[in-house]
Amino acid sequence: MYASRVRAALRGWGGVGAMAVLCALALGFVLLLPCTQRAPRQTQHAGPSVAHGIQADAGSCQDSGAQDQTLSPSGADGPTIDAIKARTGERRKLIVGVDQNSYRWGYRNPNTEGAELEGFDIDLVHRIAQDILGDPDAVQFKAIPTNQRISAIQDGRVDMVVRTMTITCERLGQVAFSAPYFKTGQQVLAPKSSSVTGYNSSLAHKKVCTASGSTAYTKLSDDRKSGALPASTDISTTVPNQLDCLVRLQLGEVDAVVTDGALAASQAAQDPTVELKGAPFTTEYYGVAMKKDAADLVRRVNRVLVDYRANGWQNSYDTWLSATLGKDSTASTPPAPRYLRTG
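Given the sequence above, the corresponding structure tokens read:
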């Protein structure tokens, strides 16, 4: 049964199995790649006067409002941006941590020459590079595993991470985030023939895979301790990259995967033998992550996002995500930003 599931998964655009091999070979390389087949780039920029949004009072961060704990937009340069612009020659690039195996978000398309990076997150990276350096291709991409996103920022290996990264209060103690650019929620992914029906008692005595360092694992761990998840649910299987969970599922090593619904929908599009089970059981927001002391960069990215929501976001969504998430779903419009009142 599992062999047939794997064979089915290798059809179509190249198969997640082939994708995983390609990604494993490429992981660790730092590449500057022009993206093709992506949404057309928009180079117009609105000034700071268009930075609208309801400001939130500064105070204790609650997970329900973690996405609001960011600085107001500004187009001004500062020490972090000055250092990026001071890079010379081939080094004059924005260094960004991304995924290379999340289909339609940040992935290497094996059907393009050079297996180029494409996806919704990749489009946003190019837009930020256009604003800061005047060239959408002035980007040095670094493939960063899920469990290394925060350390890559803190160690200075990257200027920012744009990698389906959920804004949480815990993470805000370690890095700074932009305003949210996407809204999603955790969901269960399992074989169509599975008895699992969602995030409920049907997960009893089941093996569930999550990415280490992910909000999915934190949620499962907390809920099992509180009794909201059956105590018999086995959540011991964690992997560095979320796509590895889908491979484990195809091989029959786990019974289900818990991850962001936006990612799970793309994985279901890759493998016709699996499907989303039940409704989302959390609300989460993706943000661009940067160093905590990079206030000028945070404000600049927020200014870019003001422009991008008005001109570019929808085009990118329609190109990459509408086929799996729908044209009229709650995910099909960008979340409204809120900013800290700092003075």
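The longest strand covers residues 186-191. Try to locate this feature in the token string yourself.
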